[in-house]
Amino acid sequence: MSNFFKSVFGKASPKQLQVLPQNVTIPIEPGKTLLEAALAAGIVYPHDCTVGNCASCKSRLKQGRVREATPFGYTLSKEELDAGYILACQAFPRDELTVVELDSPSESLPPPGKFAATITSTEILTHDILRVTVKTDGPVNYVAGQYANLLVPGASRARSYSFANAPQRKGRDVLDFYIRKVPGGEFTEALFRGELNGKPLGMEAPLGTFHLRGGDAPMVCIAGGSGLAPLVSILEHARVTKIKRRCTLLFGARTQADLYQLDAIKNIAAHWQDHFEFVPVLSHEPADSDWSGARGFVTDHIDARFCLGAEGYLCGPPPMIDSAISRLTQFGIPINHVHYDKFTDSRDLNQ
Q1: Any long-range contacts for 76-79 (C-beta under 8 Å, 24+ apart)?
Q2: Which residues of 222-242 are buried (b: 16+ CB within 10 A; e: fewer)?
Q3: Interatomic CA distance for residues 79 and 75, integer angstroms
Q4: By three-state DSSP, how is residue 269 classified?
């Protein structure tokens, strides 16, 4: 009897989800997404926002068909879609068996916890980026590249910011974030006015699956704006632990005034165990200025010479990420070797 007649005249066969590489198979209750089914079964499945924005639950569809609650293309790049990636939080099964594969199972990442926190100081880095130092009531154990959710009591929702420090073995209770001002944003406007200094905050951390993978492949790191934070954390931790990998860091900004943390990057480069190349790229620097460095969009300066056998690590706004993915894959980096943290435009989220 066909599935159509089973659904009309009898009970349809239950749908199942198989998750690789764990090789675990579980039932999917009617009306549940793949992510909801996995979490209900106790599977450690990367996720955060659950609404299709963050791409933490990105998975490769190996078998079966799914229905999209919202189009995957709003978040995933064309290259990811072509490679068969889906968002588990927005995917409903259409066939009896759905098989997905996780690129980076998160069992090895530290579990999130709840902390009380206080902003102890701020430092102006650029006209629209602050270094914000937060003290927590206990050490936060995280992997370089991860982030925290910060919540002001009474606020409508938490805000997500990446750790800018390298982690420490016993955790950190003093943490830095690079936070960009969003004009009209409830949280960042108050932050830049100094109104949140000393105020109690809630923190959930660590979150996210963006981190440096093992191995000795060359690294192509690309940052835009406040997306420099998780890459500084990753690179500083790699420097301290004496990881030996060739690295190219491209940093996109508008003008010279928007470049920041240059001393920190210079220190990383000076103590790196292998070749380290830093390429700042300015998109709106006046033509008659004294700038002699690279100009244009940062992704225009991705070069085949440093992509051979490399992995990509990308942090910044979605258009930059999508463009970088396209360029890196054109130069031969496999899509599953490109790792990113998209910094969603906070203005769309009323930040």
Answers
A1: 77/321, 77/322, 77/325, 77/326, 78/322, 78/326, 79/325, 79/326, 79/329, 79/335
A2: bbbbbbbbbbbbbbbbbbeee
A3: 12
A4: helix
Amino acid at position 321, single letter: I
Amino acid (one-letter) located at 106 = S
In the DSSP assignment, the letter for residue 64 is S
| End-to-end alpha carbon distance in the chain | 53
Report the candidate in 125, 49, 124, 145 with the shortest Cα–Cα distance to residue 88.
49
Distance (Å, whole) CA 218 – CA 250: 14
Please report which residue ranges of 125-282 form alpha helices under DSSP H. Answer: 186-192, 228-240, 262-270
Pick the CATH number of 219-344 from 3.40.50.80, 3.40.47.10, 3.40.605.10, 3.90.1140.10: 3.40.50.80
pTM for the whole structure? 0.87
Domain 113-207 grouped into CATH 2.30.120.10: no
pLDDT at 157: 85
Q: What residues contact residue 301 under an 8 Å CB cut-off, 6+ apart?
A: 250, 279, 281, 294
For residue 182, what are its two tokens? 């969003």
Which residue is listed with tokens 């759905």? 98
Q: For the chain (length 351 residues), average pLDDT per consecutive 10? A: 47 84 93 94 85 88 96 92 95 96 74 95 96 97 96 87 96 97 91 93 93 95 96 98 97 98 97 98 97 97 96 95 96 95 58 41
Query: What are the structure tokens assigned to 319, written together?
Result: 């258009």
Q: Is the peptide bond before 286 cis (omega within 30 degrees of 0)?
A: no
Which residue's entry shows tokens 């990057």?
A: 265
